[in-house]
Write a structure and sequence with these properties.
Order of helices and strands: HH
Radius of gyration: 31 Å
Helix content: over 70%
Distance between the termini: 90 Å
Length: about 80
C-alpha cells in the first residue's frame, strides 16, 4: 500500500499538468470556434445586406407606387 501511495505521489504532478494542458487546449479550441463563427455570421449578414441592396436597385417598385412622394423619391434616385 505504501508503494502505491509513493507512486501516486510521483505521478500526481504529471497528471495535474496533463489535465491543465487539456483544459487549455479545450479553451483555445472553443475560443477559435467562437471567433470563426462570429466572422461567418458577419459575412452572412454582409452578404444578406448586399443582396438586399442589389435586389432593391433591380426592382423599381417605387415607380409603380400611388404615393406621389415615394414616386418622386424614386425618380430622384435614378
Amino acid at each position: 500500500m505504501d508503494d502505491l501511495i509513493k507512486e501516486l505521489q510521483i505521478l500526481a504532478p504529471y497528471i495535474l499538468y496533463a489535465a491543465i494542458a487539456l483544459t487549455c487546449i479545450t479553451i483555445v479550441v472553443a475560443v477559435t470556434k467562437m471567433i470563426i463563427n462570429r466572422k461567418r455570421q458577419k459575412l452572412k449578414e454582409r452578404a444578406r445586406q448586399e443582396h438586399f441592396l442589389f435586389e432593391r436597385l433591380l426592382t423599381p417598385n417605387d415607380l409603380n407606387s400611388k404615393d406621389p412622394v415615394i414616386t418622386q423619391q424614386a425618380v430622384n434616385r435614378q
